[in-house]
Design brief:
It is elongated and about 55 Å long. It has 74 residues and is mainly alpha-helical. Strand 1 (40-43) and strand 2 (48-51) form a beta hairpin. It has a two-stranded antiparallel ribbon. The mean pLDDT is 89. The chain has two helices and two strands. The protein has one domain.
């Protein structure tokens, strides 16, 4: 391992802490997350299927943008 690996681990850890704090303090404000238009939800008597495709696309774009900014400045 080298110094860059340690730097990446620290950045990932800090991001996880920030996300955890946001979820902990703002869980009631994030109830829309996972219920976006385009998310597929099928509920029947003994069956429940949930495929949050719009949420996954939004997360993918957000994470890609964050990683691009990190690579640009580090």
């Amino acid at each position: 391992m080298n110094q860059d690996t340690g730097k990446y681990i620290i950045i990932i850890g800090a991001a996880i802490v920030v996300i955890g704090l946001l979820v902990y303090f703002f869980y009631d404000k994030l109830n829309w997350f996972g219920r976006l238009p385009g998310d597929i939800r099928i509920e029947r008597d003994n069956f429940r299927f949930y495929f949050p495709i719009t949420t996954m696309i939004l997360l993918s774009v957000l994470i890609s943008a964050i990683l691009w900014v990190i690579r640009k400045f580090l």
